[in-house]
Fold this protein.
Amino acid sequence: MTRSQTPAAASAKDFGAARTLVFDHAFLPCGWARDVRVTVQDGVISDVAPDAAGTGGERVKGIAIPGLPNLHCHTFQRGMAGLAERRGPSDDSFWTWRDVMYRFLGRLTPDDVEAIAAYAYAEMLERGFTSVGEFHYIHHGADGTPYADLAEMASRIVAAASGTGIGLTLLPAFYAYGGFGAAPAVPGQRRFLNDPDRFLKLVEATRAAAARLPSTVIGIAPHSLRAVTPETLAEVVKATPRGPIHIHIAEQVKEVEDCLAWSGARPVAWLYDHMPVDARWCLIHATHMTGDETRRMAASGGGGRAVPDHRGVARRRHLQRP
């Protein structure tokens, strides 16, 4: 929980201690409540009770609200803050921004990835974010060669979450191609690439790596329609019957135009026409949609969750995750 003043109970040294706090005011499922007692055991809230004045516990002045989830995060990009915020000399766009990102990530070691993730997660916790959905796509070495442990990089994300205490939904990204129609990948993407077979092995290795942090949720993240084919997308989705599914879907106008040229349909419409989009799915950057696509998303029973464009430093979104 977060409040207007940082509580001593949130300090790292007290993470494993049993604490009882009584907040003046707190926002609960039933609305605002007074004198709310919060019991914390081993870093986890075990009980919340309103109207608990006089029941004992450390009094906390101010208000408390539930911790915020960061629905969509690429923590390694926290390390490149300041490198791409200035406009280039000409023809500057999202696509040239990617070139800066590729050059940066080409230098990252597993130790770097863990350190940057831990730093970003600590920042999130300081600002009231208590869980994160990590859309994780740096899988291999700088030259594209897989590590001996396929989940080496995923293990570093788990270690960062474990060390900081943030809740983690880990979403290994499936990235196989460089553009619509199975276009070849560019050199800057080589650390991301897997075929379906190796990707599914990576997901299982990630589950094993996350076993030391039992609260971790494992899902999958087909990176985008431009990074997969219909066949490979269907294969990995069918082979992963549990856990959330996140996908970048319509972030840029060029992406929509390229999808139309490839398939005759816009990305969101294509996805709803060809995939079983349900409550497991989270549509990231559903930014460029038509009215019909918006209605289809709404009619899907809440299955698609849209996160708008997010060129923020640490990818922070005030939205609920699946």
Q: What stands out?
A: The chain has two domains: 2-65, 68-307. The longest helix spans residues 110-126. The domain at 2-65 is CATH 2.30.40.10 (Urease, subunit C; domain 1).
